[in-house]
UniProtKB/TrEMBL annotation, chain A:
Cofactor: FAD
Keyword Oxidoreductase: yes
Record's protein name: Pimeloyl-CoA dehydrogenase large subunit
GO terms assigned for molecular function: flavin adenine dinucleotide binding; oxidoreductase activity, acting on the CH-CH group of donors
From TrEMBL, chain B:
InterPro entries found in the cross-reference section: Acyl-CoA_Oxase/DH_mid-dom, Acyl-CoA_Oxase/DH_mid-dom_sf, AcylCo_DH-like_C, AcylCo_DH/oxidase_C, AcylCoA_DH/ox_N, AcylCoA_DH/ox_N_sf, AcylCoA_DH/oxidase_NM_dom_sf
Annotated Acyl-CoA oxidase/dehydrogenase middle domain residues: 122-215
Pfam families membership: Acyl-CoA_dh_1 (PF00441), Acyl-CoA_dh_M (PF02770), Acyl-CoA_dh_N (PF02771)
Residue ranges of domain Acyl-CoA dehydrogenase/oxidase C-terminal in the record: 242-374
Protein name: Pimeloyl-CoA dehydrogenase small subunit
Keywords: FAD, Flavoprotein, Oxidoreductase
PANTHER family assigned to the protein according to its UniProt record, in alphabetical order: ACYL-COA DEHYDROGENASE (PTHR43884), ACYL-COA DEHYDROGENASE FADE28 (PTHR43884:SF20)
One annotated GO molecular function: flavin adenine dinucleotide binding
Tagged with keyword Oxidoreductase: yes
Cofactor(s) the protein requires to work: FAD
Sequence similarity: Belongs to the acyl-CoA dehydrogenase family.
CDD domains: ACAD
């Protein structure tokens, strides 16, 4: 048993770090470090830099543009990216729809869609959830009825993260109403510019329209946009969901947040002449979450070591989803605790580029509450943590 | 042993409950928050007419009696509606401070006006580095001629934007953490040298960062004896802490009810999600937390109304806020989680209750602070 990096791996780590230092745009880093809202262009610009380096999709098979890295290299890459504060590529294209396309799509679809995903020419969003199909995803009601060489799509999808930026949406649609609910679902790719699609924003608790509802009113979709076989979409959907859960542990991100939190606490007055890091109650909580992230990191390493290239992790990834999201949420709570009264002002304008009014509070303290509120979504999305526990109960424990 | 309300308290509860149910629905509240003022002057006048603004005050000051149990009754109902009118900032916090510290002339000047709904106040106590220590005061007030000159920066002053007058906690002598040397001054919100950075807080209430630069006030702006205000400030903040704890109970009970109702109607996998035992047990836990929160708030309110020592009263309030803090954390998070995605949107009231109780968690001492304060007493 050995969890040390080899000399080659250490060299690779340095290569990644040097690349980030040289290539991650300074203006984007400034935004990330100061909690300033990122725009679409920031994501696209950075992803194109990653593409030019050949590192945008480490999990893809090499033939489609993957890096050919082993699990340790992938881990090192994710670690360095997270610790540097560099954003992962937006998941909907690279991590979600692409694995479905390269696994189940035909050659023409691969040629048509994969290069644009790699090069960030096309922004994808998800069309899985519906207002009445959340945890029970298979009960979805959006229909696609075949008419000649088109499907006519009707229904409503929800929680389309950053759907306002999207060029394309991948959708689960019902193509057969007469069979068991899982057996009548198909996987369709839909151009957001098609007539009949309406996007309406949903404002979240932090006041930001981060997600959307997408309405389909007799939307004509060419049959060549069907991935794989009709009525087999549920199988593909499940594969996508397990891919979605890779890196859902968010260990590098949590480590970075914890480093910053520790130094923030060391510089935050406790109100009695010392700092918050002198406070044993706070220190204990900080230690608890550090230990949780450490355990999580090794749980993730063990999972990674067991996964071969391009293959989706198994049901044990549910552990990573549950603990990873809980750790993130707990860290958010501690940021709010450190900020105390400073966490209460709602001043989103000061976290946008070019704000030149009077700053409220110190640093990003005033954003800590909204981060906390917003990240309550983490234990709900991607298969709620309750669903993850069902998966563990059934698939792992055999209950 | 009797935990029932008196007839008067029952009437008070009925009257606030009727207002919240009939005139304070979620959409009305949303419109008030989005308005320029941030709350309704019409409702404020109604509060005055119905006598609610007299609740925090003693009979000799012209009030309803000033009992903590009365205050609890009103605040719990306000909590159910997430009322944003500045009852706490103007009447409970600032009003009680005037009542504790003010001269007869000052009380006559202001308490009547508060109770009639004609005076808006805000108390500026917290500072950038003070956290929850009321004795940590860097703002200074130095003698100058017949009056004082005040300089310093105050943070998160609730009702700061609408206040006609500010009650500013400033140091007239001593070092930053000394218990001695803290005074309270009345400052006109529009006085030269006062600048206000107004904003809406995460819970929809209005607040401000207030900067005071060489603000001149007359000698009669001082409330109480110079340098001796801390003890009164602590008593008042304890009272306010009890009040928000009671408000939290109202909000938590609402969260529990809404969650239970939702799980009866929301169907997944062909059944109402309330039929899942995993969720039933969690809602049972929420219920237990709500009951314990209400119980400990009643305990603390009765203690404040008793002849107990100052230390016992403080200990009771610390215990209440600590325990209610735990309830706010659990019930708030579980209500959101059990509702799922819909509760992290702005459109459902559940998220707004969650934001309000989270705000209360971080006001006047968070759960750890209150627990350690209890342990130290």
């Amino acid at each position: 048993m050995n969890a040390d990096f080899t000399a080659e791996e250490l060299e690779f780590q340095k290569e990644v770090h040097d690349f980030l230092k040289a290539e991650f745009p300074q203006d984007i880093k400034h935004k990330v470090d100061n909690g300033i809202k990122l725009e679409k262009d920031d994501f696209v610009r950075w992803q194109k830099i990653l593409y030019n380096k050949g590192w945008v999709a480490p999990n893809w098979p090499e033939e489609y543009g993957g890096t050919g890295w082993n699990p340790t290299q992938k881990y090192i890459f994710a670690l360095e990216m997270g610790l540097y504060g560099a954003m992962e590529p937006v998941a909907f294209g690279v991590k979600m729809v692409a694995p479905v396309i390269y696994t189940y799509g035909n050659e023409e679809q691969k040629k048509r869609f994969l290069p644009d995903i790699l090069q960030s020419n096309v922004w994808w969003c998800q069309g899985y959830s519906e207002p009445n199909a959340g945890s029970d995803l298979a009960s979805l009601k959006t229909t696609a009825v075949r008419e000649g060489d088109h499907y006519i799509v009707n229904g409503t999808k929800t929680w389309n993260t950053l759907g306002q930026y999207a060029d394309w949406i991948f959708c689960l649609v019902r193509t057969d109403n007469t069979v068991k609910k899982q057996e009548g679902i198909s996987f369709l790719l839909i151009d957001m510019k098609t007539p009949g699609i309406k996007v309406s924003p949903i404002v979240l608790l932090d006041g930001e329209p981060e997600v959307n509802e997408v309405h389909f009113d007799n939307v004509k979709v060419p049959v060549e946009n069907l991935v794989g076989e009709e009525n087999k979409g549920w199988t593909y959907a499940k594969v996508l969901l397990t891919h979605e859960r890779t890196n859902i542990a968010q260990v590098p991100n949590s480590k970075l947040k914890l480093q910053k939190l520790r130094s923030l606490a060391a510089n935050t007055a406790d109100g009695y002449g010392g700092t918050l890091l002198d406070n044993p109650v706070f220190k204990r909580k900080l230690a608890e979450v550090e230990i949780q992230v450490l355990a999580l990191e090794f749980a993730e390493l063990r999972t990674l070591a067991a996964v071969s290239v391009g293959k989706a992790p198994g049901p044990e990834s549910s552990i990573l989803k549950i603990v990873g999201t809980e750790a993130t949420q707990f860290i958010d709570e501690l940021y709010m605790e450190v900020a105390a009264y400073h966490s209460l002002p709602h001043v989103p304008e000061q976290f946008t580029e070019g704000f030149d009014g009077e700053q409220v509070g110190k640093g990003s303290a005033a954003a800590s509450s909204n981060t906390y509120f917003n990240n309550r979504k983490k234990s709900i999305y991607g298969g709620s943590n309750e669903i993850q526990k069902n998966i563990i109960s059934k698939a792992v424990l055999g209950l | 042993m009797d935990f029932s309300y008196s007839d008067e308290q029952q009437m008070l509860q009925d009257s606030v409950q009727k207002f919240v149910k009939g005139r304070y629905d979620f959409d009305t509240r949303k419109k008030l928050i989005e308005s320029d003022r941030g709350f309704s002057d019409e409702y404020w006048n109604l509060f005055a007419e119905l006598g609610w603004l007299t609740v925090p005050f003693r009979e000799e000051d012209g009030g309803f009696g000033g009992s903590a149990v009365d205050l609890m009754v009103v605040m719990e109902e306000f909590g159910k509606g997430m009322v944003v009118e500045p009852f706490l900032a103007t009447a409970v916090l600032s009003g009680s401070l005037i009542s504790e510290l003010g001269s007869d002339a000052q009380k006559q000047d202001m308490l009547g006006a508060i109770m009639e709904g004609k005076l808006q106040l805000a108390t500026a106590y917290a500072e950038a580095d003070s956290r929850y220590n009321l004795a940590s005061v860097a703002t200074t007030a130095s003698k100058s001629g017949d009056g004082y000159v005040i300089s310093g920066d105050k943070i998160v002053v609730f009702n700061g934007p609408a206040a006609d007058k500010l009650l500013v906690v400033a140091r007239t002598s001593g070092d930053k953490f000394d218990r001695d040397g803290i005074s309270v001054f009345l400052v006109d919100a529009g006085a030269a040298g006062v600048s206000t950075r107004a904003y809406t807080a995460v819970d929809g209430h209005r607040a401000a960062e207030i900067h005071l630069k060489d603000v001149k006030v007359a000698a009669d702006a001082l409330l109480g004896a110079e340098g001796k205000a801390l003890a009164a400030l602590e008593v008042v903040i304890d009272r306010v802490t009890l009040a928000v704890s009671a408000e939290a109970v109202g909000a938590l009970v609402s969260l529990l009810q809404k969650t239970v109702e939702y799980t009866k109607t929301r169907k997944q996998f062909g059944v109402a999600i309330g039929t899942f035992q995993a969720l039933q047990h969690r809602m049972a836990d929420m219920f237990v937390e709500c009951e314990l929160a209400r119980s400990i708030v009643i305990m603390a309110a009765m203690k404040l109304d008793s002849a107990a020592s100052a230390a016992e009263k403080t200990k009771a309030v610390a215990a209440a806020k600590s325990r209610v803090g735990r309830a706010m954390h659990l019930v708030g998070q579980e209500a959101v989680q059990i509702h799922g995605g819909i509760a992290v949107t702005d459109e459902l009231d559940v998220g707004h209750y969650f934001k309000r109780v989270t705000t209360i968690e971080h006001q006047f001492g968070d759960t750890d602070y209150q627990t350690m304060r209890y342990a130290a007493l």
